[in-house]
Amino acid sequence: MITYGVVGRDEERTLEIALRQALDAAGPGDEVWFVDSASVDGSADVARRLGVEVVSTPAGKGRAVAAAVARCNGGLLCLVDADIEGSSRNIPVALRDRWRETRADMVVGDFAWPRRRLLSITIAVHTPLVRALFPESLELLAPQPLSGFRLLDTSFPLGRLPYGYGLECHLNVHVASTGGRIAWADLGTYDGPVIYRPAMAPDIAEAILDVAEEQGRIERSERAQWDAWIQPVLELIATAPSIGEDALEDYERRLAALADRPTPPVRASVLPSP
C-alpha cells in the first residue's frame, strides 16, 4: 500500500493537477491525501470536491510532512508538491514505478525545469556544505537535491524533521549518511511557478548543519564558524529576486566565488573512511 500525500499551502490554482495525478497513480488499497499546511484559500475545498481526504497540519513544509509521516505509520509515503502546472510524466507514477524497481528507502524525482534558470541554493548552500560535511553522500545527492517529489519508506528512521524549508536537505543527508538506499526517478519535464524564496536558504543551511552536529561531524563550539561561512552566501541570495536580466551574470559569478571559498576545517576522524 502507498499513501500519496500532496503537500501544499494556498495552492488552490494548481492543486487539482497534482491531486488528479495522485488519484491516477493510486491502486487498490492506496490512499490519497491533501496534506494542507494551514491554507487560507480554497485548497481544501478543491481536495474534498475530488473525494480526497484533507489532513490539516500547522504551517511549515517540514511540519506538514512530519504529520504525514507519523500518520503513515511505517508505510510508503509518496510526497507530491501541489504546485504542478504541467509535467511530461505522471510524477507519482514515476516515483512509484522506480520504487518498485529498486525498493529504495527514498526515491527522489529528477526533472528538467526549462523556465527556471537560477539554482542559487543548490550551488552555493547545499553542494559546498554537503561536500565538506557529508562527502561520502555527495554523488548520491547530485541530480536534483532540492526536489520535493519523493517516495519515502517511513519505516526507515528519518530523524527529527525540521519545521520549514530544510526538509528535503535533512532527508538528503540524514538518509544518505545513516545507510539508507537512495534512488532517482526520471520525471521528465516539470512546469511550475518560478518563485524565488530567499528564506529557503537559511532553513536549508540550518538543516544540513543540524544533522552534522547531531552526528558529531561538527561540535557545538564549531557551529559559529559554519554560520559565519554561510552568512555572506545568504546575504547575496537575498538579493536574487530583485536582480534584472542584465545583472544575472555578475550575480552568478559572485555566487560561484562564495561557494568556492574554503569551508571551516573538518576533523578527519569524524568523517567516514573513503
Q: Give the assembly state of these chains.
A: single chain
Gap from first CA to last CA: 37 Å
> How many alpha or pi helices?
9
Strand-residue proportion = 15-25%
Topology, number of strands: 8
Give the C-level CATH assignment.
Alpha Beta
**Could you give me the name of the CATH homologous superfamily?**
Spore Coat Polysaccharide Biosynthesis Protein SpsA, Chain A
CATH architecture: Alpha-Beta Complex
> What is the string of SSEs from the N terminus onward?
EHEHEHEEHEHEHEHHH
The global form is globular
CATH topology: the name is: Spore Coat Polysaccharide Biosynthesis Protein SpsA, Chain A
| Unreliable sequence segments | none
- Mean of residue pLDDT values: 92
Strand order, main sheet: write it out: 3-2-1-4-7-6-8-5
Going by helix content, strand content and strand pairing, the class is: alpha/beta
* Number of structural units classed as domains: 1
Q: Rg, please?
A: 19 Å
Helix amount: 25-40%
Largest sheet: 8 strands, mixed
Task: Give your account of this protein's structure.
With about 270 residues, this protein is α/β, with parallel strands linked by helices. The chain has a single domain (about 1-265), classed as Spore Coat Polysaccharide Biosynthesis Protein SpsA, Chain A. It is built from 9 helices and 8 strands. It has an 8-stranded mixed beta sheet with strand order 3-2-1-4-7-6-8-5, with helices on both faces. Helix 2 (about 45-50) links the parallel strand 2 and strand 3 (about 55). Helix 5 packs parallel to helix 7, helix 5 (about 120-135) packs parallel to helix 9 and helix 7 runs antiparallel to helix 8. The protein is globular. It starts with a strand and ends in a 15-residue tail after the last helix.
